[in-house]
Structure formats: C-alpha cells, structure tokens
C-alpha cells in the first residue's frame, strides 16, 4: 500500500498545479455568487482527469477508483469542492460494469473528450429517502420506449450535465418476490428530456451545491437507454453507491488536510499573551488528534478502493471509510474554526466556506447513523433495526 501511495505523487502534483490556477479567491467568489465553477471543471475535463475511470479504448485514462479518489482528495485539499464534478467519477461504474458495448461506444468517448457530461444520478425521492426499494417513480414499457412518471429530489448537477442515470420501478413493489427486485436503470439524455416530460426546481442550500427537485410527467426514453437487464437496477446501482461513498471519503480526507494545514499555519503565527497560541497544548492536542483521525480514515479509503478495483465486495469498507472520513474532516473543521476565533467566521479566510461544505457529509450521500445501522446488521450480525 505504501509503495502504491508513492506512485500517486505524480497525480497529486498535477492536480495541485491545476488547482493553483484557481485559488481561494476563485472558489470564494463562486460560493458567494451561488455559481458553478465552470472554468475549473472545464480545465479538469481538458486535462483528462474527469475521464480517469474510462478505459483507454474509449478515450479515457483507464485508471482505477484508487487514483480517482486521489484526484478528488487533492481538489479538496487545494481548497476546491469536488462536489461540483465528482458525479462523473462514480457514475462511471454503472455504465462500465453493466452497460452494453453499443452504449459504451455511444457515450464513453464523448464523455472522455468532454463533449458530453455525465454528472447526475437520480435515485432519492421525497417520500422514501434512503429507503430506495420503496421508490415510486415508474417506467412503463410501451413499444420500443419507456414512459417515466414520478418525482426525485436532491438530484445534483442536472443543470450542468448532459446525461443522467435514473433508477425507476419497472415492476410494482407488490408484484415482486423481493423488494429489491423490479427496479431498472436508464440513461436520460437531459438535453432532450428537460421541458419535454422532465421539469426541475432548483433548491438553494447552505453549501452552494447545485441540486434540484425533478418532476417526470410522461417522459419517453428509448428502450436502448435501459442499462443491463430490466428489474436488476437496484443491484447495479450499488456499484455506483459504493464508488460514491468511497470518493466522498477521499474528499473529506482532502478537507481534513486542508483544515489541519490552515490551522497549523494560523496558530503558529497568531500571538496572544506574547506567545504563539500553537505553543499551548490545549490548542495542539485537538489539531493533532484530528490529523491522526484523517490519516486513519485515509487507510480505510485505500482498502475500499482496492477491493472495488479488484471487483470484490466492498460495501462495508466503503461505508466505514465514508463515516471515518466524514467524522475526521468535521473534527478538523471544528478545530480550525475554533482556533481561528472570530477570523474563522470571516469569508476572506475561507474557513467558514469549507466548514459548511464538509458538514454536508455527516448527512449525505448517506447519514452516519445509517452507516452504523448497516455495519451493525451486515458486519456484526445484529438484528435488523428497521
């Protein structure tokens, strides 16, 4: 593992160099304007980083989730927010592992070149939340097309994506043997769908995370856009969710390092009562503990990535990596804000911006409580709690 980490230095240096062109002022301005970092995402695309997981034969870099996690980590460590573009990384798994050759040929080269963006995945619904098996959005087969009706919420980057992965029910819940059956995955061409059966309502939020509520009303999707077999979509989507949670863990690790680096610089220079406040153990210990926990979470991230890249089951590791990293980054964020004092609340220091951004990951893409429930039931064998 340590030898492998050394091989990532080239990636880290390249991402750091790219991010240096988009400093604190850039990301601060985008946040204050509630905007989207279009120039930054375009630069990542042009450099090929958002095509990292696409195989070389389709124009991508042919890298693994491990390398993708390093890319996301370094963006956040540089002060950026990978939430603007990470969807293209974790959505790849669904297409790569379950799409047909014709679908891969149609979509992947254009995604790799930047002609198309696959940034969005529509699963969550207002009345079901994490209880995915009870989704109400339906896809009814009519001839060579599927007709979609229903509603989704907290669907991110729709306004900055061309394609969207959609999970919908093709067989009613009361007609399936297992509640995880009867759901299917579709690729939605947003350029054709919006205002033609798909409408959206942007949701303004505290972290400038472009997200929306979606409404489907007789949206027609070609049968050719069904990914894999009908009715097996829940199984397929798990690949994307495990990749998502692992990449979010990497982003939290990047945030954690950012907070630790910033607060160390500040407390080493901030003088109160004729001495740097970083000389006080009451300041040192919380920062040191946060750093230790970030490093530990990083190791679990690598384990989850290694299993995913080997095609092995990684649900437990992906969930544990996400929980550990989210907790570690939140711990580092609190130490950073606390020891900046009042200056931590000033926008010009960027602490409050990153503080808001990393707080999201206690809740999304899955709450820490649900991860604990998963581990209790599926790892420890305790009785199902819900």
Short description:
With 386 residues, this protein is an alpha+beta fold.
Number of domains as seen in the coordinates: 3
CATH overall fold name of the largest domain: Butyryl-CoA Dehydrogenase, subunit A, domain 3
Level of helix content?
A: 40-55%
Determine the strand fraction and express it as a percent band: 15-25%
Class of the largest domain in CATH?
Mainly Alpha
Structural class label: alpha+beta
| First-residue to last-residue Cα separation | 37 Å
Write a structural description.
By secondary structure, the chain is of the alpha+beta class. It folds into three domains: 2-113, Butyryl-Coa Dehydrogenase, subunit A, domain 1 (Orthogonal Bundle), CATH 1.10.540.10; 118-229, Beta Barrel (Butyryl-CoA Dehydrogenase, subunit A, domain 2), CATH 2.40.110; 235-379, Butyryl-CoA Dehydrogenase, subunit A, domain 3 (Up-down Bundle). The protein has 14 helices and ten strands. The strands form three sheets. Strands 1-4-5-8 form a four-stranded mixed beta sheet. Helix 5 packs parallel to helix 10 and helix 10 runs parallel beside helix 12 (315-340).
């Amino acid at each position: 593992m340590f030898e492998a980490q050394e091989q990532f230095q080239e990636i880290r240096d390249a991402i750091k160099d790219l991010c240096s062109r988009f400093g604190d002022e850039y990301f601060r301005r985008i946040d204050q304007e509630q905007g989207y970092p279009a120039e930054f995402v375009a630069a990542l695309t042009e450099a090929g980083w958002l095509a990292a997981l696409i195989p070389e034969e389709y124009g991508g870099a042919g890298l693994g989730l491990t390398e993708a996690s390093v890319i996301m980590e370094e963006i956040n460590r540089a002060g950026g927010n990978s939430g603007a573009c990470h969807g293209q990384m974790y959505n790849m798994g669904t297409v790569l592992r379950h799409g047909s050759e014709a679908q891969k040929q149609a979509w992947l080269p254009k995604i790799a070149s930047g002609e198309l963006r696959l940034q969005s995945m529509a699963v969550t619904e207002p009345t079901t939340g994490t209880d995915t098996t009870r989704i109400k959005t339906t896809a009814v087969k009519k001839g060579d097309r599927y007709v979609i009706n229903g509603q989704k919420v907290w669907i991110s980057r729709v306004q900055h994506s061309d394609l969207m992965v959609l999970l919908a029910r093709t067989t009613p819940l009361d007609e399936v043997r297992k509640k995880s059956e009867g759901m299917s995955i579709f690729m939605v061409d947003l350029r054709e769908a919006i205002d033609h059966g798909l409408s959206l309502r942007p949701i303004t939020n505290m972290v400038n995370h472009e997200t929306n509520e979606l409404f489907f009303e007789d949206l027609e999707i070609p049968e050719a856009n069904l990914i894999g077999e009908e009715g097996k979509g829940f199984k397929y989507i798990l690949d994307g969710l495990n990749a998502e949670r692992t990449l979010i863990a990497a982003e939290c690790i990047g945030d954690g390092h950012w907070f630790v680096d910033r607060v160390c610089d500040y407390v080493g220079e901030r003088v109160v009562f004729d001495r740097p406040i970083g000389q006080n153990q009451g300041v040192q210990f919380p920062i040191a503990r946060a750093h230790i926990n970030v490093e530990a979470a990083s190791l679990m991230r690598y384990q989850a990535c290694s299993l995913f890249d080997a095609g092995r089951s990684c649900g437990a590791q992906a969930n544990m990596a996400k929980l550990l990293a989210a907790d570690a980054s939140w711990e580092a964020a609190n130490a950073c804000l606390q020891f900046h004092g009042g200056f931590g609340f000033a926008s010009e220091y960027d602490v409050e911006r990153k503080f808001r951004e990393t707080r999201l990951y206690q809740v999304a893409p899955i709450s820490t409580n649900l991860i604990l429930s998963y581990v209790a039931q599926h790892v420890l064998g305790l009785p199902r709690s819900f």
